[in-house]
Amino acid sequence: MRLYIDFNAYRQEALLKQENIPIHVWKSFLRILADFTTEILQYEDIVYIPWRAFIVVRSEIAKFAKGHAIDVVLSSEVSSKLREANVHSYSYAIKQTPLTEKQIRAKLASRGFLRRLTDNQRNNLSKLGVLPAGATFSVPGAGKTTEALAYFFLNADSDDRLLVVAPKNAFGAWEEQLAECVPSEKQSFVRLRGGEQSIELKLRDNPKYMLITYQQYPRVKNLIQKLLQSHPTFMFLDESHRIKSGKIGVSAEAILEISYLPKRKLIMSGTPMPQSQKDLIPQLNFLYPEKKVTEEDAIEALQPVYVRTTKGQLGIPEVEHRLITLPMDALQEQIYRTLKSEVKRNLIPVISDASKYSLREIGKRTMKVMQFVSNPALLARDMEFAFDERMGKLLSQNNGPKIEYACGRARQLAAEGKKVIIWSTFVENVELIATRLADLGADYIHGGVDAGDEEDNDTREWKIKEFHNNPNKWVLVANPAAASEGISLHKVCQNAIYIDRSFNAAQYLQSEDRIHRLGLQKHQTPCVEIVECANTIDQVVRKRLQDKVQRMSQALRDTSLNVDVVPYDYEYFGDEGISSEDADEILRYFFGGTDV
To answer: For residue range 411-422, what is the model confidence (pLDDT) as tens digits?
Structure first.
């Protein structure tokens, strides 16, 4: 009995052909393959399996063959690729000896890398530098981009290339840091954007450094695969938690498909597990595709291959979290109870003992409740409520206590000479607050604001520059989905007010980091005010965010990851990412803790 294994370079597949293996044994073998991947093509005695899946299942194949006395015959190409895979394997990585400071300095100097590294960066590179694939999960401001470029120059040969997948708003940082770290480097990053034809033309010019967004990547994945197959290329994922969806996400699946092709790999994120430890699995799968990781052992598997610089190590002052709990007026409270009952009634068909409830439907219904608590007027255009007499009366009266508090508090801070950023999940709130505080020079950023040059009026960058430099601009109002990344406000602003928050822990932490990052003076204490309405869905959101951040803190061994709040007395002034555990907490809230 024999099993021949060959490699199809064009299709990037392993070809497995059996000879004289009994049918019942062959069927057992096929079942083992099916346990690891559904991407199997079988034609009688031949099986085709993607190489990335073969890498994962190869140990099981060897074990099965040994147990059934099957001779395995490898082609020369398969033998070569397996030797290469072993050098890039997890088991190889964890046996490596860290680099010394002397080795790091000497190698970087020989490559023209002139930026002086901090002690934390050198310590991180000592561990990362010897790994075929690793993770840097340092906090914003710690210099992850510099660290990543140093990793490249420590290990790259002269003809190696670098491909960075990143959010669009991070492109500028990569371009700037490359020029500052290696001033003698004649080539700069090429942005792979436009259509497939445009990107293909750019790749024909053989760029050494490339940037591409997560949205663009799956549209040109075949071009990227050809690049990785034909040229030795390092591949970095900036904000790598964006692939946490794994194979059900378009970008994530496209990236995981080629995870065995890059010469070396690095993932970067300050919030690598925004929902749970399950978020780490696709990221580890990218780094080491042959390593089988489960939710139970993901954190343990991460430990030998990641580094993190904490806010404590950077000497950043602790942030003060204040909880401002406001009462709703009698009418809003009455309508809230009705709305809560209506949502509960609508959720009953979605859940049952026999079927898994729909996270999307629960999220959609919960968002409506969150909107009402944040600002009752947000439901004005909802046809379910537009003709309700009580709702109409409420909407004609005011925007609810949260908006009133935020506007009043912003005026108080401005009077004290302090700038403030006000956050809301809902675009209508963002624009409303900016309008009401126009006399304070308030401006807003949400997904509808174009990115561009800071000299172009009304672009995202222009508004940020104005907030920094214009003494008459006291307030910036923003949506975390659009402004939680790529913005530093801490030099001019140490106050933030949250009208509402979503269940997305990554966005919340990143938004808070806009004012809480490296560069703060020791006497400066950033103040974050979380505004809630009493006895509402707000408390569910707070509990889930605290749970998620606490889990991340434990996994990353970073005690500075803490969003616990201190209740504060309020005063009136003159004026989705939902997980199954989020759903559990929501259902307990709507159904009063009863089993459903």
So the answer is: 999 999 999 999
